[in-house]
Write a structure and sequence with these properties.
Number of strands of chain B: 5
Shape of chain A: globular
Distance between the termini of chain A: 64 Å
Largest sheet of chain A: 7 strands, mixed
Radius of gyration of chain A: 28 Å
Number of helices of chain B: 5
Radius of gyration of chain B: 15 Å
Low-confidence stretches of chain A: 1-5, 808-812
Distance between the termini of chain B: 46 Å
Strand order of the largest sheet of chain A: 3-5-1-12-9-10-11
Structural class of chain B: alpha+beta
Mean pLDDT of chain B: 97
Largest sheet of chain B: 5 strands, mixed
Oligomer: heterodimer
Strand content of chain A: 15-25%
Largest interface: A-B, 56 and 55 residues
Chain lengths: 812, 154
């Protein structure tokens, strides 16, 4: 009892310092690469230096004789055993050729594995790679998505009829969620058409991927730097024909993921095969160059967007056509990434008609899959950019245009033209707060002054009023979208003899702070001290059920499961308390960790006392099991819909093209806060990654299909010197879809920030007749946009994009 | 193989190393200091930063043989008698880490930054940590942590 007296009234809402930190700031970490096992061998992968070729011969004889080399394996060795890497999305007609972990007779991207060496030391394994001779008979690289879809195009895979993987379509008229799109296109007063390019990005988690496999009897234990130990366990077993109960996967300390570790990787499969072939534990850890080359990439879409509106600014129709580059193979969620954005293009606006068409395309590049936001940053970028373009054509203030069209606070719940029902939000409140924090009016004045005096450094102001769907996901919805898994989450809560608590969760953190946030939730639910709670995760042996961490789901779905399990524990404790207090259950009140008989304040029993009594089992009610624990599996009833207003001011030096962020302010509504400090940190990091897409990062291939940005010298995640301070505040409208009222925050910053930055840059250089700049907006690109011959400008009278604007107004 | 004598986190070691062995690999694989990590292969990320004879270095750009007769402090040797170094404490207090992979190098580099400039401006902190990449925090709270640690020293 006494231990709980100095607790805050509620742990939820406190910026608790993280439980996770101590071992991380003192270097007592358990990264997969830290694992060392007796007799462990080290693995090195030989990767194809060419994008597309037939393999006509591999000579591994010399490598096999190198010092310390225990085994060399090629595609021939594993062609029957390796199975095909799984794709968890299977709509009708998906073209899904075999996805080998190691190439057998053809390589389809530069970086594909062609041989594996196992040796006593990492150096010996690495050194032996150079002794393997591979003969390649080159095939033409397939690099351009639109060219790849043309009749007669060179094929990536010899077994398919074309490079098209699928066409996925949604149309509001056919779906019954809105008007037919064709009518909206045919009758439009104003039509804006733009093509936006979502450049290829690389997730660039800081910890390179690493996998250790130990054969255990006829099964394996795998340590892997993964976001998805549970999915990996199931699918690794299925892929390789190992019974699921024989596979244990451990995700120890995992150094970031951002979607980049949501995979069943070729390397995990090959480490398993080699470990089983040699009956020895093996370890593989990639170098950064290997990671940038071969770990999956993200984004890489061409977006053709058509927006129609009335001349008064009322938006009517939104028509979206995407080409999505899957690279050489369909990976776990790759083809489904555009579809995760399919319901988000209409964003917070009341469109009457909507169409979304996505075509997946094979190219001879590294496969793409989830990267922070997965589909939703692309959607948000397109709609927020084109809203600015519409404002410009109409001569309207871009924020006024948005206000005119967004869902008002008293219109929730609101079912959108894409068929989703948003439960809560307050776009006006978040926006008003953001505008005030930003000092919009002052910055607008400064922008006008700089324009008037033709200052070489122009100021641009950018807006992004975003929403997202997260908390993946209701299982039935995933089923209707042809996903091969549900979206439930599992948790169990057990009271130990001494009143301490173990909580087992199926989410798998890699930096998010689940141990802290879930402890806060359980502390409030059970009324036990924060410090007395241990969160167990990331080992399929101790945490057997779960669907892991991605899609901003861990709190909205996993946290909700924790609450359900804790509620069950309290209900069981109530029965035992009633027995111990010789009272009726109905007469008990539960507060701050103790049951008290109503009207008899002296008569109470704490959770700790109940836990001990349960452990003893000496005096329990008849028919009750002597345990105080519960398990809950929670399937969400809907997605959650965080939203926010992000504002960015950018100074563009028109003489050099250098764009520098002057100010960044955001007000996010992620529902009820559990730990405000963690929320703020997630927003900071998310915004930084979105800024990185706008300004710094791009995976570039040369004309032969080789990645030219294969190190951190060329692929340039921003440093502290490249990024601005970020003001991240909140507005709160609780989600009505879960008991905690939470909405999720992991992806919000990344989804929101990219269009805010790009709208600001385009705004800064509009006076030069520029209406788009391709990302990343490097100084060269910005300079060329300003000084190039092709001015994009405003549409001319008589064209269908003509909005009637005659002044520069607020929409410059 | 070359013999080196080096003191790491207060303990003396005498080891045979291959001439090509990088300090970071020596620390991780021979000394067992796995708190120091490898994040890249081009000396861009700074995750492997340690203190070598009072100077902060990226231990991927130093050969183990160069440290013969030297003293190395890693993240594992920073806390004294169970008390966190002020920079470690500041990182914890300011939520300046998420996944924590860059943190050992970031703390070591930040500590060196303050040694050379005890009262840095925000801009000086950002420039001073330019050689250390973090993918989680957007650096906002790292800057705050360094400011707190600077204040604690003042």
């Amino acid at each position: 009892m006494t231990a709980v007296e100095d607790r805050p009234d509620a742990e939820i809402g406190q910026s608790r310092r993280r439980k996770e930190d101590h071992h991380l700031i003192t270097g007592r970490t358990t990264w997969t690469d830290n694992v060392t096992l007796p007799g462990m061998l080290h693995i090195a992968m030989l990767r194809s230096p060419v994008a597309h070729a037939r393999i006509t011969g591999i000579d591994a004889a010399e490598a096999k004789g190198r010092p310390g080399v225990v085994g060399v394996f090629t595609g021939e060795d594993f062609k029957d055993a390796q199975g095909s890497l799984p794709c968890a999305w299977a709509p009708d007609g998906l073209v899904n050729p075999n996805t080998p972990s190691i190439a057998v007779d053809q390589v389809n991207f530069a970086g594909e594995i062609v041989a594996v060496v196992a040796a006593r030391s990492k150096n010996e394994a690495q050194d032996a790679l150079e002794a393997i001779g591979v003969d390649y008979d080159p095939l033409p690289p397939v690099l351009d998505m639109e060219a790849a879809l043309k009749d007669g195009a060179d094929l990536v895979h010899p077994t398919t009829e074309s490079n098209k993987i699928y066409t996925w379509e949604f149309e509001s008229g056919a779906a019954g969620t809105g008007e037919p799109i064709q009518e909206a296109l045919d009758t439009a007063e104003v039509t804006i058409e733009r093509r936006f390019i979502q450049q290829r990005l690389i997730p660039s988690f800081m910890e390179p991927r690493s996998t250790v496999v130990q054969p255990v009897g006829d099964g394996i234990t795998m340590w892997s730097s993964t976001q998805i130990p549970h999915i990996l366990r199931t699918l690794l077993g299925v892929t390789l024909g190992i019974p699921e109960q024989k596979v244990r996967v451990i995700a120890p300390d995992v150094g970031g993921g951002f979607g980049g570790k949501i995979a069943v990787t070729p390397e995990e499969v090959l480490c398993t095969l080699v470990a089983r072939a040699l009956t020895k534990p093996v370890k593989w850890t990639e170098s950064r160059s290997e990671s940038l080359l071969a770990a999956h990439h993200g984004r890489d879409q061409i977006q053709d967007i058509t927006l129609t509106a009335k001349r008064d600014g009322t938006v009517i129709g939104l028509d979206v056509h995407l080409y999505a580059d899957m690279g050489a193979y369909n990976r776990l969620f790759g083809p489904s990434v555009p579809v995760l954005g399919a319901f988000m293009y209409n964003a917070i606006y009341k469109f009457a008609a909507y169409r979304f068409v996505s075509e997946g395309v094979f190219t001879t590049k590294t496969p793409t899959d989830a990267y922070r936001g997965a589909g939703r940053p692309e959607a948000t970028y397109a709609v927020e950019r084109i809203m600015d373009e519409l404002a410009h054509e109409l001569g309207m203030d871009p924020m006024e245009l948005r206000r005119k069209n967004w869902i008002k606070r008293d219109e929730f719940p609101f079912t959108t033209v894409a068929g989703l029902t948003y439960d809560s939000g307050d776009y006006d409140a978040a926006t008003d707060k953001a505008l005030q924090l930003f000092g919009w009016d002052d910055l607008q004045r400064e922008r006008a002054e700089r324009r008037d005096r033709k200052d070489p450094v122009q100021l641009g102001l950018g807006i992004s009023t975003f929403t997202e769907m997260c908390g993946l996901a209701p299982s039935r919805v995933l089923g209707s979208l042809n996903f091969g898994a549900g979206g439930w989450e599992n948790a169990s809560v057990r009271m130990l003899a001494t009143g301490k608590v173990e909580v087992v969760v199926g989410t798998s953190p890699h930096g998010q702070g689940h141990e802290t946030a879930f402890s806060q939730i359980v502390a409030d639910q059970l009324g036990v001290p924060f410090e007395d709670i241990e969160i167990l995760h990331g080992d399929t042996q101790s945490s057997p059920k779960g669907l892991d961490s991605y899609g901003s789901r861990s709190l909205a779905v996993g946290g909700a499961a924790v609450v359900k399990a804790a509620e069950k524990v309290v209900e069981k404790a109530r029965r035992i308390a009633a027995h111990l207090l010789e009272a009726s259950e109905d007469d008990l009140e539960f507060e701050k960790g103790s049951f008290t008989v109503k009207g008899a304040p002296g008569s109470s029993v704490s959770m700790g006392e109940i836990a001990f009594a349960t452990f003893l089992g000496h005096n329990l009610p008849d028919g009750i099991e002597p345990s105080l624990d519960a398990d809950a599996t929670y399937d969400p009833i809907n997605f959650s819909f965080p939203h926010g207003t992000h504002l960015c001011a950018v100074e563009v030096d028109t003489e050099t093209g250098f764009a520098k962020i002057r100010k960044y302010v955001c007000v996010d509504d992620v529902g009820k806060p559990i730990n405000p400090s963690i929320i703020e940190g997630q927003v900071h990091g998310g915004v930084a990654q979105g800024i990185a897409q706008a300004l710094y990062e791009e995976a570039v291939y040369d004309e032969s299909g080789n990645l030219t940005t294969g190190t951190f010298v060329d692929y340039t995640p921003p440093s502290a010197a490249d990024l601005p301070g970020i003001t991240a505040e909140r507005n709160v409208t609780p989600s009505t879809y879960n008991d905690l009222g939470v909405k999720g925050v992991g992806e919000a910053g990344t989804i929101a920030s990219t269009p805010a930055v790009m709208n600001a840059i385009v705004d800064a250089v509009r006076p030069f007749g520029v209406n788009d700049i391709q990302m990343p907006a490097t100084p060269e690109r910005v300079w060329r946009a300003i000084h190039g011959q092709e001015k994009s400008g405003r549409a001319e009278e008589g064209t269908n994009a003509y909005g009637g604007a005659t002044t520069d107004g607020g929409a410059l | 193989m070359t013999k080196i004598n080096v003191k790491v986190d207060g303990v003396s070691y005498s080891d045979e190393v291959e001439p090509r062995t990088l300090l970071v690999h020596y620390l991780r694989e021979q000394v067992g200091k796995v708190g120091t990590v490898v994040g890249c292969d081009t000396s861009n990320c700074g995750a492997c930063t340690v203190d070598l004879d009072g100077q902060s270095v990226k231990s991927c750009s130093v050969l183990a043989v160069q440290t013969d007769g030297s003293e190395v402090t890693t993240i594992e040797g920073l806390a004294a008698n169970g008390t966190l170094h002020p920079m470690q404490q500041a990182f914890h207090d300011n939520h300046a880490l998420q996944c924590g992979f860059c943190t050992p190098g970031m703390i070591m580099a930040a500590r060196d930054l303050l040694k050379n400039n005890p009262n840095p401006s925000e801009d000086e902190i950002r420039q001073g940590l330019e050689g250390n990449l973090c993918r989680c925090t957007g650096y906002v709270n790292i800057v705050r942590a360094v400011q707190q640690a600077a204040g604690a020293k003042a």
